[in-house]
Amino acid sequence: MAFAPMGPEASFFEVLDRHRASLLAELRRAGGEPSGGGTRLASRFEDSVGLQMVSHCTTRKIKSDSPKSVQKFALILKILSMIYKLVQSNTYATKRDIYYTDSQLFGNQTIVDNIISDISCMLKVPRRSLHILSTSKGLIAGNLRYIEEDGTKVNCTGGATAVAVPSNIQGIRNLITDAKFVLIVEKDATFQRLLDDNFCNKMSPCIMVTGKGVPDLNTRLLVKKLWDTFHTPVFTLVDADPHGIEIMCIYKYGSMSMSFEAHNLTVPAIRWLGLLPSDLKRLNIPKDSLIPLTKRDHMKLDSILRRPYVTCQPFWRKEMEIMADSKMKAEIQALTFLSSDYLSRVYLPNKLRFGGWI
């Protein structure tokens, strides 16, 4: 074994091992990526990849002789010239670095971010091929070791501490793990609580990742790399609310803004471990621990229910309908009503042992 911490006995992981075997069997049958189930749909979505940009999508022209777009045209040329220099010199820069080369010219960081995404889409290459990196905000902990591009050896098995997600995922190599599963945790507070509860050691071997809310590009790339390298089952732990479901969908199916890079970012094999809306009633969580859905929540939930990939996920749809009918949502912290360590001591171990995912 590559790592020392001892977790549950081998029989604990029997259902997880069967789940992994079924994912691998599906992978072999498909000759590629395991799908999310159901039939393939036209338009912007394929269940084996996620959201994709289609050939007949709306395009936008930017002209140098048009008063409406001349400034945007100039900024694109400016950033293209910087990209050319980065590629020629085989060096890298962050989006923040590019903004601060001439902050007065660019105006704000969002303008730079959008132009870089437009260039990546226009050239049909991943952003890292432009030698532009994103600043990572995500964290990783558990049964994983790897070597960064500069030769730095990283060991994520640190008990109550986590490691920052690398800024150049493409450059990491020699990944080693014995992990039985990868757990994506929506919120940093929940992630830190699980670290404090020594979850990674108690459930060893496993890996935990958080994007601290909506995941940045590097966190998504890391989850994708872990799946592509090890084909270890990946689960999400998110709040039982529309925002949490949206974040889970980004990891699993991608986002409209990055649909041109879906193949490099999405993991359709991801499963929803918790917090399920149906768990709230099953565990008798009191109503005063729940939160009423706002008008914005209802709009977000309706939007998700209309998405094509939900037709491939009848169990997801059922959970969202339970939420809509109850008009209530819940944060993961609602489980503390049962006990302060209920999440790490009871909820997650039982879910993982008995296959409580959808």
List the defining traits of the structure above.
42% helix; six-stranded mixed beta sheet; 358 residues; 14 helices; 15 strands
Layout of secondary structure:
Layout: H1 14-30, E1 45-46, E2 50-51, H2 70-89, E3 93-94, H3 95-101, H4 103-106, H5 109-123, E4 132-133, E5 139-142, E6 145-147, E7 153-155, E8 163-164, E9 173-176, E10 182-185, H6 188-196, H7 199-202, E11 207-210, H8 217-230, E12 234-237, H9 242-253, H10 262-265, E13 271-274, H11 277-282, E14 291-292, H12 295-305, H13 314-326, E15 328-329, H14 342-354
The SSE order reads: HEEHEHHHEEEEEEEHHEHEHHEHEHHEH
What kind of assembly state do the chains in view correspond to?
single chain
**Number of separate strands:** 15
Q: How big is the Rg?
A: 21 Å
> What is the first-to-last residue Cα distance?
30 Å
- Output the structural class: alpha/beta
